[in-house]
Design a protein that fits this description.
single chain; four-stranded antiparallel beta sheet; 14% strand; globular; binds flavin-adenine dinucleotide
Length: 403
């Protein structure tokens, strides 16, 4: 067990600076362009791969840090650069986390690196849970997986909605129902390897924010994968299904286990966006003159900034605590959800206040704060909406099945 400390160690400080330099020098200058183009920023992701920022090794190193802080520290800097490009770089991590959370050590060794490829051959991963009629309510997934014992082969059918890197990924991790009656307890995760027939991209969504990140439907039409692509293996699944049929607790569900582990990281994304908007509006408020003095000299503006700074620090403290707890204990009162909820709502408020501080300029696309406001909003929706985070927290603190 590692002590909780607010002092970053040498390695963490170096990584923080390394990611910050990339965000400032490479991402920020092209952020507006990729937002306008609304396309996946391949050249930026390739450059990130060249320096090792996009890659399984970096993710595993960051995730392996016993204090838990390296990943949120790096993500905050990345998303300070730009959230759309940040998601393009981090999107594969959700697939890798799904594999790490549910796969055998051999499956993790085989498939996590394939979510990234190499510096010269960049590949992507996608984690496919949500469906048109099942977002928050993961228990009602309609995608089915049927096993053919003679061939040791699974057939997947269904449609996934709003999937980051969906259809352009090389490795798709798909959560499907193998026994619909058991609802979420009858679900399992499957690897769909590159170029598997039957998997295709449905509509590509046009979005409010994080527009450099690719989001699409994924259609699974008689997709056949070998038995070895069932994460965790058949024996483990059979045992889990048997326990569920006997009504014994089966522990965490595959999709939920992944989301729980990644919540502080999603909070860190929102934190990066909030800090970008806060820093920009603080500088602006000191320079912009109205009625003969800088606008920051008015309490109405200065107090807004004081509030932004405090909420950002509070978010970071919750994120670091949750990231540390995830490695050095366990969540007791929904601390992962607290961190994600607080940081994402803070990002929305802070970016809105930033627009207010910039006035008319803030509302135009000449200045980045309106983009940051659009980018902030997704964090209250994906990987568990703010309402779902509150549900998790209220159930954790009460021990009751709050609906
Ligand atoms: C840009 C983007 C990227 C995404 N990437 C991925 C991805 O890579 N993989 C993936 O699997 N999914 C992804 N998603 C999907 C995302 O996780 C879902 O959109 C999200 O979980 C919400 O589900 P929903 O859209 O069906 O909303 P709904 O579940 O229909 O919720 C609608 C509203 O009702 C509220 N609500 C629902 N149930 C309750 C309740 N019990 N109590 C109180 N309020 C409730 C919600 O909080 C929300 O405000 C992505 C979505 C977007 C927009």
């Amino acid at each position: 067990m590692t002590d909780f400390s607010l002092n970053l160690n040498e390695d963490q400080l170096q990584i923080q600076k390394w990611v910050h330099d990339f965000a400032e020098g490479v991402i920020r200058p092209v952020a507006e362009e990729w937002d306008e183009r609304e396309e996946f920023p391949w050249p930026v992701v390739e450059e990130a791969a060249q320096i090792g920022l996009y890659g399984a090794d970096f993710l595993l190193t960051a995730m392996g840090d016993p204090t838990g802080l390296t990943l949120p520290v790096a993500i905050e800097e990345l998303f300070w650069g730009d959230a759309g490009i940040g998601m393009a770089i981090m999107g594969s991590a959700l697939a890798a986390a799904g594999i790490a959370g549910n796969g055998t050590p051999e499956q993790v060794m085989e498939w996590a690196p394939q979510c990234y490829g190499t510096a010269d051959n960049v590949m992507l991963g996608a984690f496919c849970v949500s469906e048109p009629d099942a977002g928050s309510d993961v228990s009602s997934l309609r995608t089915r997986a049927v096993y053919n014992e003679a061939k040791d082969e699974w057939t997947l059918n269904g449609t996934k909605a709003w999937i980051t890197n969906g259809g352009i990924a090389d490795v798709h991790v798909v959560v499907a129902s193998v026994d619909a009656e058991l609802k979420s307890k009858g679900q399992a995760s499957f690897i769909v390897p590159p170029n598997t027939p039957g998997l295709s991209m449905g509509q590509k969504y046009k979005k409010h924010g994080i527009r450099a990140s690719h989001t699409s439907e994924v259609v699974l039409d008689d997709v056949k994968v070998p038995g070895s692509c069932l994460l965790g293996g058949k024996e483990k699944l059979d045992a889990k299904l048997a326990r569920a049929r006997e009504n014994v607790s089966t522990g965490k569900q595959p999709a939920m286990a992944t989301f729980e582990a990644t919540r502080p990281a999603v909070g860190a994304q929102a934190l990066g966006v909030a800090r970008a908007a806060y820093e920009y509006s603080l500088d602006y408020a000191k320079e912009r003159v109205a009625f003969g003095k800088p606008i920051i000299m008015n309490q109405a503006i200065a107090f807004k900034l004081a509030n932004m700074a405090t909420e950002i620090d509070a978010s970071r403290l919750l994120i670091w605590r949750a990231a540390w707890l995830a490695k050095n204990g366990q969540f007791k009162n929904g601390e992962g959800s607290m961190s994600k909820w607080k940081a994402s709502e803070t990002a929305v408020r802070v970016t809105e206040d930033a627009i207010q501080i910039l006035g008319g300029y803030g509302y135009t696309r000449e200045y980045p704060v309106e983009r940051w406001h659009r980018d902030a909003k997704i964090h209250t929706i994906f990987e568990g909406t703010s309402e779902i985070q509150q549900l998790v927290i209220s159930r954790a603190i009460s021990g009751l099945r709050i609906e």
